Amino acid sequence: MTPLTTPSTTGDDVVLLTVPADGGYLGVLRTATAGLAARLHFALDEIEDLRIAVDEACAMLLAVATRDAELDCRFAVTEDALTVEVAVPTVRGSRLPAESSFAWKVLTALTTSASAVVSDGRATITLLTRRSGGV
After folding, report:
1. Alpha-carbon distance 12 to 7, whole Å?
2. C-alpha distances in Å from residue 54, one per residue of 11, 51, 92, 103, 120
3. CA distance 71 to 105
4. The domain that contains 91 carries what CATH number?
5. Which residue has the higher pLDDT, 4 or 126?
C-alpha cells in the first residue's frame, strides 16, 4: 500500500482500510465511516451526509482507477472531526471531475471541506467533517 498524503497527528486515532477498487466493496467504507462518525457523537443527519460524501468521492475515484486497483482509505479521528482520505492509482491521462461539477458540489455541501490531489499516477480525495453540535 502506498502511504496516503495526510500525515498523522499525535493523539489522533487512525484507521486504514484497503478494499478492491470495485463498487461492490464501497459498503465496507460507508459502514466504517458511519461507525467512526457515531463514535464522535455526530448527529444522525451528519453521519448520513458523510456516508453519502464518502460514496461520491469513491465513485469519482473508481472512474479513474487502474484495472485491478485497490482503494486505500484513511480515517483520522480527532476530538471533534473526522477526516476521510481515499486514494487509488489512476489510468494515465485520467482526470477527476472539475470542481464546478455536480459531484464536487455534493462533496462540498456535505462536508466541512473537500479537496483532491492527482500526482504521480495517484488520485486522492480528502474530506473533512467537523461535528456541528455538542456531545
Report:
1. 11
2. 24, 5, 24, 11, 23
3. 22
4. 3.30.565.10
5. 126
Q: Does 135 reside within a domain? A: no
Pick left, alpha or beta for residue 68 (phi over 0 → left; psi -120 to 50 → alpha; otherwise beta). left
Kindly state the cell numbers that stand for 11: 493523539
| pLDDT at residue 3, as a whole number | 46
Confidence of residue 132 (pLDDT cuts 50, 70, 90): confident
pLDDT at 99: 87
65 phi, psi to nearest 5 deg: -75, 150
pTM, whole model, 2 decimals?
Answer: 0.87
In tens, the pLDDT along 97-113 reads 988 899 899 999 999 99
Structural domain includes residue 5? no
Q: Residue 43 corresponds to which cell in the numbers above?
A: 448527529
Burial class (CB in 10 A: 0-12, 13-18, 19+), 24: exposed
- Which range of residues forms the domain containing residue 29? 13-130
